[in-house]
Design goal:
It is a single chain. With 308 residues, the protein is an alpha/beta fold. The protein has a single domain, classed as 4-Layer Sandwich (Nitrilase/N-carbamoyl-D-aminoacid amidohydrolase). Helices cover 25% and strands 28% of the residues. It has 8 helices and 13 strands. Strands 6, 7, 8, 9, 10, 11 and 12 form a 7-stranded mixed β-sheet that branches. Strands 5-4-3-2-1-13 form a 6-stranded mixed β-sheet. Strand 8, helix 6 and strand 9 (215-219) form a beta-alpha-beta unit. Helix 1 (22-38) runs parallel beside helix 4. The longest helix is centred in the N-terminal third of the chain and has 17 residues, at 22-38. The radius of gyration is 19 Å and the shape is globular.
């Protein structure tokens, strides 16, 4: 950890995307980055697949997994059309927003590479440069209908003037070796990007903070049924009233002892801001350091294939 680190502010963005509309979602994201920076945030985190919406139909739409189902095909085609290419115009716009904010921005997107979709985390620096891409290693259950698998090259931790910055997506927080891969790179600030941060996701985020002795920004989306496009049969088949919540938020900032510093905030759009002091990550490692004095490399051998 760098000497002379000082407290700074971080923000979790809890907002509703313009569902399956990349341009409108990126525009809203850029405005939210500016707003969070105006509140002093130097690291700004968004939820999983926020550009342009987590595919909620996988959980709740009748027929979402039926073979050769035309409504599911049309929803998938729209998802592909709304995905982000790296590099591309959406990357340029988000990078410009990070540069204007002078902040690190970590944002979940549907990334289209060739003909394959990935659930990805994009890392932008305060100069607007894209510093890294993490593709979800193992899409969970029905997500495998849509997303490909990432590789070890995306298990990145950035060495920044604010500390060591990394992140994981959703159920990657229950992959012990993925966690250890980031712990061993000295992570002090972690982005936990979720569709929404329900009770067990809160448990996983707090456990990650305690285990890794890192600050955790847990970011989740708020989405109501009325926010879904009205011209896709699969989405309109989702049962419930227009105001019914499909994603409830739950965004929070958690300290390296597992305690909440801000949030969780539920069922409304919000920017959840907290001040973090990197020195606390050092203090908490007095008792537990799973990549240091609490590790037994003479007993356990660990290797990450970062070659893809």
């Amino acid at each position: 950890m760098r000497a002379g680190l000082r407290p700074f502010r971080v923000a979790a963005i809890q907002a509703t995307p313009a569902f399956l509309d990349r341009e409108a979602t990126v525009a809203k994201g850029c405005a939210l980055i500016a707003e969070a920076a105006g509140r002093g945030a130097r690291v700004i985190a968004f939820p999983e697949a926020w550009v342009s919406g987590y595919p909620v139909w996988l959980d709740v739409a009748p027929g979402a997994a039926l073979w050769d189902h035309p409504p599911a095909k049309r929803a998938f085609a729209r998802l592909v059309a709304s995905a982000v290419a790296v590099p591309g115009p959406a990357i340029d716009r988000l990078g410009a927003a990070a540069r204007a904010a002078g902040a690190y921005v970590v944002i979940g997107v549907h990334e289209l590479a060739g003909s394959t979709l990935y659930a990805s985390l994009l890392y932008f620096g305060p100069d607007g440069a894209l510093l890294g891409v993490h593709r979800k290693l193992m899409p969970t259950y029905q997500e495998r209908l849509l997303w490909g698998q990432g590789d070890g090259g995306g298990l990145i931790v950035l060495d920044t003037p604010l500390g060591q910055l990394g992140g994981l997506l959703c159920w990657e927080h229950w992959m012990p070796l993925a966690r250890q891969a980031l712990h061993e790179r000295g992570e002090t600030l972690h982005v936990a990007a979720w569709p929404w941060v329900h009770e067990l996701h809160q448990v996983a985020s707090r456990s990650y903070a305690f285990e890794g002795r890192a600050f955790v920004i847990a970011a989740g989306t708020v989405l109501r049924r009325r926010d879904l496009p009205g011209d896709l049969e699969l989405l309109q088949a989702i049962p419930g009233a227009p105001d019914e919540l499909l994603q409830r938020g739950g965004s929070a900032v958690i300290g390296p002892d597992g305690a909440y510093l801000a949030g969780p905030v539920w069922e409304e759009e919000a920017i959840v801001v907290a001040e973090v002091d990197p020195v606390r990550a050092i203090e908490e490692r007095l008792t537990l350091d799973v990549a240091g004095h609490y590790h037994r490399p003479d007993v356990f051998h660990f290797r990450v294939n970062r070659g893809g």
